[in-house]
Amino acid sequence: MILMRQRVAAVTIALCLAAAASRADGQWFKYPTPGNVPRTASGAVNMNAPTPRTPDGKPDLSGIWLAANHLPCPPLLRDGNDCVEKTPLSAWAFNIDAGVKEPLPFQPWALAERAKRSRANSADDPHARCLPSNPPRAYTLPHFQKIIQTPYFLAMLTEFNASFRQVFTDGRPLPVDPNPSWHGYSTGRWEGDTLVVRTNGLRDGLWLDMSGTPLTDAATLTERITRPNYGTLDIAFTVDDAKAYTKPWTVNLRQEIVVDTDLIEEICLEGLRPMHLPQQ
């Protein structure tokens, strides 16, 4: 527990500082969102307003999104200016299975690997070392994600290291022998109001969260994405990775709309060094 608290505090400080840097007042981010943003009488965004739809009647997933399920402010930041009531971190950022009642069905080596990574204070977390994220971490980390929806693909733009992911909805199959990559290869199809996204071709040795939950190159991921109202994306995320787990498992993630702002590149290697790593 002591190691876990130390790790959580260290990584929280690093990511909160990074998030604060990406929201600085010197940026252009007090600009009205184009279109008709539904608002309440007080001027706040009406999160429960009806789901926007594209001309062909499908839910429009476009917008700027940020992880929900925020954590309370950790003790080390309560007296600072970067954290007042809650951090921009979600519980899922630390543990992808936060809120899941049953333990994840780890293969023995995968459970041991997660424990090893945690004992090392998560110093080898790829995200903390400024390497790209992966699905589903883009849904859980404190970085804005902008979705641009077209009839043939979705572009998911993430401000962290100015990265992107493509989800093709033009009917193409997943590649048979893809070159491994951080984001993998994704195709999607609509089932009613749900976009079902399948991903393969991920590289080996990935982390699903700051606790070091493993993901391997054998994984196929399935996302079932819905927008039940104006302000929410719900993502049922299923991991099928027989190399690391004894059976597929699912977590339910959520993102919330962010308006009157936009992305700006946040290049981790330009000085946003996580505080828990040693000086080079």
Give the number of DSSP strands.
13
Helical segment count: 3
Are there runs of 5+ residues with pLDDT below 50, and where? 1-27, 75-81, 274-280
Tell me the strand order in the biggest sheet.
Answer: 1-4-5-6-7-8-11-12-13
The first-to-last residue Cα distance is 28 Å
Rounded Rg: 19 Å
Helix- and strand-based class? alpha+beta
- Shape designation: globular
Average the pLDDT over all residues and give the rounded result.
85
H/E series? HEEEHHEEEEEEEEEE
Report the major sheet: 9 strands, mixed, barrel
- Share of helical residues: 10-25%
Question: What is the percentage of strand-forming residues?
Answer: 25-35%
Q: Give the total of domains.
A: 1
Question: Would you give an account of this structure?
Answer:
With 280 residues, the protein is an alpha+beta fold. It has one domain (2-35, 55-258). Helices cover 13% and strands 28% of the residues. The chain is built from three helices and 13 strands. It has a nine-stranded mixed beta barrel. A two-stranded antiparallel ribbon has the order 2-3. It is globular, with a radius of gyration of 19 Å. The two termini are 28 Å apart. The model is unreliable at 1-27, 75-81 and 274-280 (pLDDT under 50).
